[in-house]
Amino acid sequence: MAECTYCGCPVEAHEPVFLSETPDGKPTAQFCNYGCLSAHIDDADLTTGTACEWSPTG
Ligand SMILES: [Zn+2]
Questions:
Q1: Residues 7 and 36 sit within 8 Å (Cβ to Cβ)
Q2: CA of residue 44 to ligand 1 center, whole Å
Q3: How far apart are the first and last CA of the chain?
Q4: Ligand 1: centre distance to CA 51 (Å)
């Protein structure tokens, strides 16, 4: 039983979204749905410092 990385609920009870941050595709995080995924991204500031938003001044 996998727990949502964001809220801790069992993801199988919803429509789970699996996230892989490794080259071999092994899931490193899972979420109930895209709402929890989006909330987690906002909380973790994952939208800053990414390659597509790279800033030379930091
Ligand atoms: Zn959740």
A1: yes
A2: 15
A3: 39
A4: 27
